[in-house]
Amino acid sequence: MEEIIGNVFRAFWWVVRFLLQGIVEALICDLLDWPINRNPSNKKLAHRLKSLEQEDWFRDLYAHKQYRDVIYTNIDIRSYLGKKRNIERLKQDGRERSNLIRRIKEEAVYFTSSY
Q1: Helix (H, G, I), strand (E, B), or coil: what is residue 93?
Q2: DSSP annotation string for 8-36
Q3: What is the pLDDT of residue 93?
Q4: Using CA atoms, how far apart are residues 38 and 10, in angstroms rounded to an integer?
Q5: Could you count the other beta carbons within 10 Å of the beta carbon of residue 96?
Q6: pLDDT > 70 in the chain, percent
Q7: Residues 35 and 79 sit within 8 Å (Cβ to Cβ)
Q8: Which one, out of 9, 42, 71, 97, has a CA that is 20 to 30 A from the CA of 19?
Q9: Is the pTM for the entire model greater than 0.70?
Q10: Domain coordinates in residue numbering, the chain
Q11: What angle do helix axes 42-52 and 84-92 make, rounded to 10 degrees?
Q12: Mean pLDDT, residues 52-77 taken together
């Protein structure tokens, strides 16, 4: 009986350590802005894009299907737009906006010419 209780306790402790490790890792990565997964969920990306849709420059860009396709399919751009810090930077920094717009347009040319 004592052996069974010991095994149950060890299994329980292993599960707790596993869960805590994941939680701590997620918190640290979030605080330091280290990507656990470079590809943000569609829900998270949609939330960030909704925030950007209040900006005229983004509404104009997002209105074009080929640019919208790049936003959703290019992993680097998805990852960039999936971070709150970058969204705030885009809203405040014209040079950051210009770089993103240029990158999306370049990728759209490549994306459409690769068919």
Answers
A1: coil
A2: HHHHHHHHHHHHHHHHHHHHHHHHHT--S
A3: 94
A4: 34
A5: 14
A6: 74
A7: yes
A8: 42
A9: no
A10: 1-36, 42-113
A11: 20
A12: 92
| Contact between residue 28 and residue 34 where contact means Cβ atoms under 8 Å apart | yes
Copy the structure tokens of residue 50.
Answer: 């909704």
Output the CA torsion sign for 89, 94, 97, 102.
negative
- Give the Cβ contact number of residue 44 at 10 Å: 15
Written as one string, the DSSP assignment of 30-50 is: HHHT--SSSS--HHHHHHHHH
> From its phi and psi, is residue 83 left (phi > 0), alpha (psi between -120 and 50) or beta?
beta
DSSP line for 49-70 = HHHHTTSHHHHHHHTSHHHHHH
